[in-house]
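Consider this one:
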Amino acid sequence: MKTVKTILGVLAFSFMLTTVSCKDAKKQETTTKTEEVKKSEKKELNSAYVCPMHCEGSGSDAAGECPKCGMTYVKNEDHNANGHKH
């Protein structure tokens, strides 16, 4: 009878440990995704050249094309002069 209680105790402890570990992993994953979104938005708004379509993760310090939509980057200061204030 003691063996059955011991086994049930170990199984209950293992289940609780797994549940807590999974919650921490999900929290960390959510935090990482939020940080990535903030970085990509920041890049779009603060780069010297930006995509007129505001594609996620676009923006560059050099002239070129947006990797997402293929449009030519415009100077950020010219883009903001057209009334695009963010």
In short: Residues 78 and 84 are 9 Å apart (CA to CA). The chain has a mean pLDDT of 76.
